[in-house]
Each structure stands twice: as structure tokens, then as C-alpha cells.
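hey so i finally got around to running both of the ones u sent me last week. sorry it took forever, my laptop kept dying halfway thru and i had to restart like 3 times lol. anyway pasting them below in the order u listed, first the sequence line then the C-alpha cell line for each. didnt double check formatting much so if smth looks off just lmk and ill redo it

first one:
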Amino acid sequence: MNNALNQLQPYPFEKLRALLAGIQPPSDKPAIALSIGEPKHRSPAFVAEALSANLDQLAVYPTTLGLPALREAIADWCGQRFGLPSGALDPARHVLPVNGTREALFAFTQAVVQRDADGLVVSPNPFYQIYEGAALLAGAQPHYLPCLEEHGFNPDFDAVSDDIWQRCQILFLCSPGNPTGALIPLETLKKLIALADKFDFVIAADECYSELYFDEANPPAGLLSACAELGRNDFKRCVVFHSLSKRSNLPGLRSGFVAGDAEILKAFLLYRTYHGCAMPVQTQLASVAAWRDEAHVKANRDLYREKFDAVLAILEGVMDVQRPDGGFYLWAKTPSDDESFTRELFAREHVTVVPGSYLSRNVEGENPGAGRVRMALVAPLAECVEAAQRIRNFIQQG
């Protein structure tokens, strides 16, 4: 067996199940889960129709590169969304469809990392655990940058030493962040591109929450936006990951894309050809319909905005929590340690949240997620409101 498997830590939800094991929550209070970030809004009917209308494609082997129609739809969407010059993103060279970003983030790391005991994969802390596992199984070491409140819940990139940048092979970014919801400013992205050029590492920007924001007039910038402002039309050392899961409430479709540096994607395509993970043709055609429509995405944001407004109004004054810049999580401080808070909240109110320390790693004796919980506002509005009221009562009763 691969010895690196022994380095993998339990997933946060395994830890959560162990924490809550043996507790009998009150039976008169229906369970409300704010723990798993699985979108619960209705999937677009027109995407389901496109999927069912193309079930005859079950008889067709899909290509790893994907259909030209899908790559063109993705390139068009990126160009409009991130202000790219016309034709800058070549569908044939700069875009690769993938089966959701989770699979792609892991596989990308295996393709890019050169096995080196000193090699680093740098990521925010807290973070999406795939970054860590992918690094370890690729033969590199994860290196964590704390996301603290005093830095707007973004890493303090200025505090990173040249030695770390020199050893860095991949820098993972997540904007809006999971679980913090923080956005990485455009100027910071441009500085990171300069660092990637200087120290020769790849920036892998996980932007799967990019379409969940609050100000319709100001969509958040992404790594491609920074490339456009720099006139970097080759997207050198820059790769972005996007998905239909959160944007379009289609987590079960397993559809996303990777876009950016053509040379990196050429090598990644070779890896994926051996990996054997081409997206089914009917899924690709349904994805074309999703990427070509924005009305359902705006409606989705409206639903989240309504839930954030309602929940924050209830928690105001009893819990230290603020509206994030994007995403669908609340990153709230707890009045007691995060594990005790999570366990007692479940025991007394039948509401499930995730301890922040489960989403982070201890570095030099400090865990940036300790004393916080992540709450995913994915349930229907009425359930989110009920959960917020139970949390308020729980805190007030002490």
C-alpha cells in the first residue's frame, strides 16, 4: 500500500460523527443540519430537461477533452464574467471540463507536483481538506497559512518567507473562502502572480463559490480578472477551478472546469487521459445549458441573501458573527470551545454545525479555526430561521 495513505487525517465529518456519537437529541425538535455544504435549492428544470433529452448519448464514449460546445460555453462565460479580452481564453487550449472541482483539485496536484521531500503545497488554514490529501499523496508536504480575523480572514502573504516561496510548487487559493467567506482582493492576486513568476510556482485558484455574493453590481474578482488587468493573456502559471454545484445547485451533476495556462492544461489533459475520468456526453450537454444561463444564478443568490438577512438578524447581539463577502457559510465565534459548543448545541437543540478546529490544522501550537463553528445556510429559509432561533435560545440559556 502507498505509505502516504497513513498520513491522511480523518475527514471533518468523520470527526463530527465521533463527537456526536451516543448523544440523544430532543425528539420533539426536528433535526436541522448546518454542517454539510450541500446546496439544497431546486436544480434548474431546463438543465434536467437537457440531461434527459440526451440520454441516447449513454451509448457514446466521451472524450477527455470534452465537447467543443461545452468548452466554448465555458470560455464565453469566463470572458463575460471576468472581463477577459475577446478571444483571450481559447476553448481548445485554455479550458478543460472536469467531473466537479473536488476530483479535479486532487488530480491536478498529482499531475503538477514533482516528488520532492522539500516540495511544498501551500494553502490557507482553515482549508478544504482535499488540498492537504492531494499534496501528501503527490509526494509533497502541505504548508498552512493562517487566515486570521486581523487580516480579514485571508492569509498574510507578506509574512511568507522567500524560503517557503522557493519550495512552493502549488499555491492553493480559495476565494470566497471555505469556511470564512473572505474574498482575496484583486491587488493581492496580482502580487501573487508576480511571486509565482519570481519563484516559479503554480497558482491554483479554487473559485467554486465565486457566484455566491451579495452585491449584484460588484461581482468578486477572480484570478482570471487579475490576469486580464495585467495583460497576461497566456495565463502563465495561473489555473482556476469552477463548478456548477454551488452556482447552479447541481452538486449531483459533477460538472466543472479548469481553465488557464495552456501548457499546464496540456500536461493535465495527458494525465487525465490515463486517469480515465471523462465527463459523460449527456452531462456535458446539460452543462452547456447551465453555463449559458444567468437568470437562475441570480435567483439563487437572492435566496441566499434572504437567508443571511434573516439569520443574522436573529443572531445579532448574542453571537459574534458577520456577513461574509461571499459563499453560503457563517464563520461564527463560540462562547465556549468549538467542540463543546457543537456537542451541546446538538444535544439540546438538535442543530448540527462543524467545529472550526476540524477544518484547520495546528501550526506552532495554534489552530486558527479554534473557537469558531461553520454554519452552512443551505437548508430552506424556514429551517435556517428555526436553527438560528434555537442557537439564540441555546446561547442565552447558557
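and the second one:
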Amino acid sequence: MTAFDNRITRLFGVQYPIVQAGMIWASGWRLASAVSNAGGLGLLGSGSMYPEVLREHIVKCKAATTRPFGVNVPLLYPDIEKHISIIIEEGVKIVFTSAGNPKTWTPLLKEHGITVVHVVSSSKFAAKSQEAGADAVVAEGFEAGGHNGREETTTMVLVPAVADAVTIPVIAAGGISSGRAMAAAFALGASGVQVGSRFVATPEASSHIHFKEAVVGAKEGDTMLSLKQLTPVRLLKNAFAEAVRNAELSGAQKEQLITLLGRGRSKRGMFEGDLAEGELEIGQVSALIDRIQPAGEVLQEIWEEFNLVRKRLGE
């Protein structure tokens, strides 16, 4: 595949402006290195890793690829200071931050020569990320799996709004699993895309095979946004999601929802494969994913279709 030259490929030093999302219980060193080796940017999902586990994955990723990779860091993580220290100590060059104030850690990361990208759900927070010194932003729409913005703005609306609000590069996310969607994102003002759900359905993802098969089997309408009183999260519908929905409809308070959620619910679902009582975070685009295939093959298909669409539109 021919390399592509734009603001995102130059920023990260990669061949293609395609980022693999740093998802909890899915984005370990095998997935991140496979995507990086294929020419995209692989990310480790540190949100489900204890500090020393994160260090282990960074070390293994460095051994598995000579190409750039990064770490996604949810800023609400309880041991965030340890994660940041390990990232600096291990010489990670790219960090994606999310779920928090970019002003908190961006200056320190930048002091150590790290490229910083912040995930946002509104043009307001995109502007704040730029002011904080972020090198780029991910504009993640309401369609995305996992934790979502309270604004519930769709990708089609969010990406152009963010592109108009900042001068730094914009990476589109939420509902993107194909070259067609990537071309649409570029038409809206993005310089790159971040793909999550489709990379869950790969052999290299560390998530449980039962979860991968559930993603492949998902149809339109099989996901829902829930837990809005805590942190909004998009889930695949199952017994647990239905229990949350019923609790919310009955007026459950925040404390009751925390009790219902309990501990380790996402690990139970996505990593251990409990499809009934586990938390199964995935995007609406799961309805368009029809098979489990290698990560490098996924990236190649997206890139080739993107170029076919660009050619067709040009004609």
C-alpha cells in the first residue's frame, strides 16, 4: 500500500492516518503492535491495566514493533500518576488522553517530548484541549462504544464543528469501521480516523472470543447508551444492560447504580466472556462488522476502500 502524507501521518510518523483506539480489555501489545506494523498507529488501552501491567505491555510492544505506537490514558484512572510516570520512564512518544481535563497532564507530557492528543465530545472541549497544548484532538461522536460524551452529538455533526473550532488536526471517531466512513470523515474536516469496534473483532485483541463473536453477531439497535448519571457508556444489550435500564426508569439514584455496577463488571464481560451479566462496551457500528479478521487485514481493507471512494468521488 502506498503511504499517505498529511498532518496526521507527519505528526505520528506513520504511513496511514488510521488510529486503533486504546480500548479497555482489548488493546494490549499484540493488537497495538499489529496495527503499527501494518502502517497505522496502535494504542495500548491503559484503562484496564495496573501500573506494572502497563509497563509490561509497553516493553512487549517495543519488542514487537519498530514503528510508532502510543498509550491511551483515561484521566479518571485512580493510579494516573503511576501511569504517567511509567509512560515517561519507558520513553513512549505518543499519548492519547481522555475523560478528564487536558490541562492537568498535557504540560508535563509535552516537557518530555511526548505528542499529546485529547479525546473530546464537543467543540468547546476541543478548544480547551488546543489551549492546553494538545497536538491534535479526537472528535468522538455519540455512536462510539464505551464511555461517551454527555452531549450525545453524532459524529456527522461533531467533526465539522470541531474542525471549525480548532487549528490543530482533528481525528474523527465514532461509527467508523470502513473506508467509506473514513472518506466521509475527511469530507467533514478530519485529517485522520480512530477505529475501535472493528479492531475488537480481531485475533490480536485481548478481549474474550465470546465477546468478539457477540460483536460480529450484533444487529442494528443492539447497543444502548446507559449509566448517564455516572459516566455515559454505550453497551451491547444483555441482561446487565436491561437491569441498568430498568433501574434508571424506576428512578434509581447514583449510589444505587454504583451498587448495581459493582466491581469488575467490564472485565467480567469483555475479558472473561460473561455475555449475560458482564458490561459489553461496543459501538453502533458493530452492526456492520460481519467477521473476525487479522488487524493488519482490517487496516488494509479500510485504506483500500478509502482510496476507491476518493477516486470515485473525484470522477
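quick thing i noticed on the 2nd:
Residues 7-206+288-314 form a domain with the TIM Barrel fold (CATH 3.20.20.70).
anyway thats it, ttyl
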